[in-house]
Design a protein that fits this description.
This protein is of the alpha+beta class and 347 residues long. The protein contains twelve helices and nine strands. It folds into two domains: 86 residues; 238 residues, 2-Layer Sandwich (BirA Bifunctional Protein, domain 2). The structure holds zinc ion.
Length: 347
């Protein structure tokens, strides 16, 4: 009997393939699957009369074959109906359509827009910046002395140069290592009072781990005016952090060294991911280094061409990826740029 079933199967599939109209298809259905005398129906009827040892195997083969023929028949029918519909210019508007997948803003973009709004509400202007810059704006104008080891800690990507061309140190092209590369550029073109933020991508030749990536996002900000003090700096950061996290967060100031500020601080915020208990993001300390900041060094104001002693100001550079990690409780910075849709679709 299995040979017989196989023969019917082949014959049925080839008959279905040859059909050109719905009428022909109906005839084929009748011939093989008809309730009264369809060939496969007849086979299934005979199965119950087989000896017990053959009944199960043959029955399941016959059922599988019937399902296969039925499926081929349905597919062919859909093809014939569609072809007819197209020929007649008929279009069924009641058929549910395919919904296109809609995207949404990347979590980093969302947090950037949020931060921008908070700063704008405090009177800051938002500036874009150059990602490719030179050593002067990236370091030298910011009071990094030439060949100073502080520059090494920034692991900067230098652009390959023609070795035959003699390029002055300050003109050497680099991918910016921080968004502070815009500080002096903007000061040169504008007179105080100035309140500016520069959100953007930065690049460092770093070994990547859960809290470091070679491409990261930073918001540089600075305020220059007469009589600006550390109190203004602390207040601005407190407003920002409590608005972003929707709660009062603990902050602490530690002394920090950055050539472009004096005095310089590290503003730490209590880790929101672990509630200060210690996790991989806060390196088990309960605190996250969030905002290096300080009072703008007089040498930087001098680079900008401002009259000596007239203005003071504060500056800060915040890792905005870190801010997003805190806010959305993400414990690995590499997820942002990893392109994994399972991650991105959660926002
Ligand atoms: Zn933590």
């Amino acid at each position: 009997m299995p040979e017989q079933i196989e023969k019917i199967r082949q014959q049925a599939l080839s008959d279905i393939g040859r059909c050109r109209s719905e009428k022909e298809l109906e005839n084929v259905r009748h011939k093989y699957l008809g309730r009264q005398d369809g060939q496969l129906t007849a086979i299934l009827r005979q199965v119950s009369r087989l000896p017990e040892d053959q009944r199960q195997a043959t029955g399941s083969l016959a059922n599988r074959t019937r399902a296969e023929v039925e499926q081929a028949w349905q597919k062919k029918k859909a093809g014939i109906v569609n072809a007819g519909a197209t020929q007649a210019g008929y279009f069924d508007i009641t058929v549910p359509g395919t919904k296109p997948a809609t995207g949404h803003l990347h979590p980093l973009t969302r947090i950037r827009l949020e931060v921008q709004e908070i700063f704008k509400s405090m009177g800051f202007m938002v500036q874009e910046g150059n990602e490719l810059t030179d050593l002067y704006y990236n370091f030298l104008s910011l009071n990094f002395p030439e060949n100073h080891p502080a520059m090494d800690s920034y692991d900067t990507f230098f652009i390959k140069e023609d070795p035959k061309q003699k390029i002055e140190l300050e003109k050497r092209q680099v991918m910016r290592a921080h968004t502070s590369n815009m500080q002096v550029r903007i000061m040169e073109k504008n007179k105080p009072p100035l309140k500016v933020i520069v959100p953007g991508r930065c690049f460092r030749n770093e070994a990547t781990d859960a809290s470091h990536d070679h491409t990261f996002h930073q918001i540089e900000g600075f305020v220059v005016d007469e009589n600006i003090s550390i109190a203004n700096l602390v207040y601005t950061q407190k407003v920002l952090l409590s608005k972003i996290f929707g709660q009062e967060v603990k902050v602490r100031l530690r002394p920090g060294y950055f050539p472009f500020v004096e005095p310089g601080f590290e503003l730490d915020c209590s880790c929101i991911i672990c509630g200060g208990q210690g996790c991989s993001v806060c390196k088990r300390t309960g605190w996250v280094e969030l905002i290096p900041c300080g009072m703008i060094h007089p040498k930087v104001l001098e680079s900008a061409g401002y009259p000596q002693g007239k203005y003071t100001g504060f500056a800060f550079g915040m890792g905005w990826s870190r801010l997003a990690m805190m806010k959305y409780e993400i414990d690995d910075i590499r997820l942002f740029m990893g392109g994994d849709l399972r991650f991105l679709q959660q926002f």
